[in-house]
Amino acid sequence: MMMRLPRHRKQIADANFLAITDLLEAYGKAAMARDALREQTAPDPVRAKEYDDLCEKLENDVLTILSAVSPRLIR
Fold this sequence. Notes:
This protein is mostly helical. It has one domain (16-69). The protein is 69% helix and 0% strand. Helix 2 packs antiparallel against helix 3 (45-68).
């Protein structure tokens, strides 16, 4: 996620609370599944779109949380 959101790398790296941790874990799993699907010889375009949409939603969720969290909660 830090590669996708370079302006927020420090915030993401410093965020140490359950909501962010869970979203980052979910994003990692979704991104790995999406990448594995893309590597297939004939990937299912519907599933690929679902994974793309899921990854984008998780990115947006992280941005929403980071914008709503007090800087004091982030190390």
